[in-house]
Amino acid sequence: MALETPGHGPNGGKRAQETLSNLLQETRRFDPPADLAAAANVTESAYDEAKRDQLAFWDRAAERLSWSKRWDTTLSWNPPFAKWFVGGQLNVAYNCVDRHVEAGNGDKVAYHWEGEPEGDSRTITYADLQREVSKAANALIELGVRKGDRVAIYLPMIPELPVSMLACARIGAVHSVVFGGFSASALKSRIDDADAKVVITADGGFRRNAPSALKPTVDEAVAECPGVERVVVVRRTAQDVAWTDKDVWWHDLVERQSDQHKPEPHDAEDPLYILYTSGTTGKPKGILHTGGGYLTQTAWTHHAVFDLKTESDIYWCTADIGWVTGHSYIVYGPLANGATSVIYEGTPDTPHRGRFWEIVQKYKISILYTAPTAIRTFMKWGDDIPAKFDMSSLRVLGSVGEPINPEAYVWYREHIGGSRCPVVDTWWQTETGAIMISPLPGVTAAKPGAAMRPLPGITADVVDDQGNSVPDGGGGFLVVRDPWPAMLRTIWGDDQRYIDTYWSRFPGMYFPGDGAKRDEDGDLWLLGRVDDVMLVSGHNISTTEVESALVSHPKVAEAAVVGATDPVTGQAIVSFVILRGNVAESEDIAAELRGHVAKTLGPIAKPRQILVVPELPKTRSGKIMRRLLRDVAENRSLGDVTTLTDSSVMNLISEKLPTAK
Ligand code: WT7
Fold first, then answer.
1. In angstroms, what is the span from residue 30 Cα to ligand 1's centroid?
2. For 542-586, what is the HEC assignment?
């Protein structure tokens, strides 16, 4: 085990075995509930079927969709360029909307939309959605948008957002949704990179009880994008807006359109959308997804991982549609499956900290999909808040976005799931398009903090730095060996960057950039980005493991850990912690927590410093920005803070600095 291994330099040969060493001993297991297992959509046999014939497995998943023309070839693989369901034709919007209406389910609710202002809600059936999407498709055509054209969408969480995406999909235009929290320069670079000719936006949205403007940001961006011909503006907040001759109101343009539109078939490999994901450096990468494979895998995984019962479940994914989680698991997967979903416009603490649980109670949500960062926030706010609501409708809980600390997992299970709901920790990325590694709620005896096994049809592995598979009990780098249907096809306009970023570190394998370990049972634990690994006195220690050890202390709600340069140990562990709501900061808390980490993980993992802070710097997608904390820990001036949700957080943290010495 790593603790006894003498030090090695960053390039030392031993590093591979030691990487992300298995420090944390987690022995809890949660069996699937017997009733859920007995009626589960997917059982253990799916793994065997996929192992016997992976392509036949994906053929069957694709058959869950409606195709205008069946494919000739399941997979054409010219590494690293994949084409799935070659020769097949389908219309993604038809699959998500019309076919459910044709099957007699037009009155079924597609979305319960809950605005942030209380009482502001809408119910949208599949028949409503068909009319809305048809009108929007006709409107885009009137504006001159044709198949293959790019449309940028910069909207708050309102029904017009999925409607716009589906309208694009319907006519074969390629949408590029830009999260509503991004700045004008971020929007401009995304519009430019994709060469979008139309932008769909709104005057603003509601956030924290107040209208928050979007249109001025669009005006600023579009002023520098001569390629944009028209800007369609939804009226949501009725704020005053400046007007240019490119602008047209959504209600003027869309409302007068016919609600009939015939969906044309598109090739399975025609582009569906571009979604930008930030690289660690350089300009954002436009991840390109295509129709057939993407819809196949998002729909199948949504059916399997959440055990979705179309007739009875009410499903809520709390992500923003501006991220891939919302694309795949608010829009495409759930609609392809004919699910009833909830969309919520606002923040979890408006007008009070029980808003999420009030929504669960109001709509009788049965499947909830959220992120560790949200769960840790709820832990911090206190157990008494969810306890006030009736959440007995819940039956499956999901987590995505980061490794989930075991304590957060167990808290989620107990305080939200009433100790009866399985928790599925789902690992995937913008690039993978759909869930790749996850427990199945009716099959897996899940371990808190582990994503467990690759889903049927997926071949993930953990390799050392030479690309050799590590034995059980070993750690290293996560890779995916075989192509999968929802995989990115390339980086928009930059095939070489696609090859370099994902397929060059380990030849012949997809490298997502995450560290992982495989435990003695062969189950997978994701350990964060590989750049979040610290090298302390030659030992590789993952920030995730130290964070989980800190969060396992009853006084800690959240923790972020970074490696700071240290003259003695190479790197030293510096921790930033948020205490739970009812805990007062005391003199000896740092010593207590250092001792706790030493006891949990071993003395090597004991943080050099512990700083109690009120907040942590997070990106708008909820990931902790350790880069900024590293700047603090190394007494440097801060790098770029523009992607933070709230940049004043860094002032609060810096104020704590003197005590860190
Ligand atoms: C990165 C991808 C997947 C949709 C939201 C994020 C991390 C995601 C998990 C998980 C451990 C996870 C990885 C991955 N990640 N889910 N269950 N356990 N890590 O999409 O912004 O493209 O980020 O998020 O590091 O590479 P994304």
1. 23
2. EHHHHHHHHHCCCCEEEEEEEEEEECCCEEEEEEEEEECCCCCCC
Which tokens hold the place of 206? 């509601």
Best residue among 427, 480, 501, 625 to mutate for probing ligand 1's pocket (most ligand atoms within 8 Å of CB) is 427
Is the complex ipTM more than 0.85?
yes
Q: What is the DSSP string of 341-359?
A: EEEE-S-TTSSSTTHHHHH
Which stretches in the chain have pLDDT values below 50?
1-22, 280-281, 659-661
Cis peptide before 614 (omega within 30 of 0): no
Residue 427: DSSP 8-state: B
pLDDT, tens only, 36-86:
999 999 999 999 999 999 999 999 999 999 999 999 999 999 999 999 999
Structural domain 537-656, CATH architecture: 2-Layer Sandwich (3.30)
Helices (H) and strands (E) counted in the chain, each on its own, are 23, 30
Say if residues 319 and 350 touch (Cβ distance below 8 Å).
no
Nearest CA residue ID for atom 8, ligand 1: 401
> Burial of 11 by CB count in 10 Å (0-12 exposed, 13-18 middle, 19+ buried)?
exposed
> Binding site membership for Mg(2+): which residues?
551, 553, 556
- Ligand 1 proximal residues by C-beta, below 6 Å: 277, 323-325, 400-403, 425-430, 451, 512-514, 526, 528-529, 621
Q: Mutate which of 331, 429, 491 to test ligand 1's pocket (most atoms within 8 Å of Cβ)?
A: 429
Given this model, what pLDDT does residue 65 score?
98
Every domain of the chain and the residues it spans = 537-656
Which of 177, 301, 402 for a ligand 1 pocket mutation test, highest count of atoms within 8 Å of Cβ?
402
Rounded CA separation 43/135 (Å): 41
CA 289 to CA 273: how far, in whole Å? 5
Alpha carbon nearest to ligand 1 atom 12, residue: 402
For residues 367 and 318, the answer to whether their CB atoms sit within 8 Å is no
Whole-number Å distance, alpha carbon 256 to ligand 1 midpoint, is 42
**pLDDT tens string 619-645:** 877 888 888 898 888 888 777 777 777
Beta bridge partners of 343: 113
Nearest atom in ligand 1 to the alpha carbon of residue 527 is 11
Structure-token pair, residue 460: 């993930």
CA of 373 to the centre of ligand 1 (A): 12
The pTM of this model reads 0.87
Query: CA 283, CA 335: separation in Å to the nearest integer?
Result: 32
Dist. CA 105 → ligand 1 center (Å) = 34
Alpha-carbon distance of 393 to 416, in angstroms, equals 11
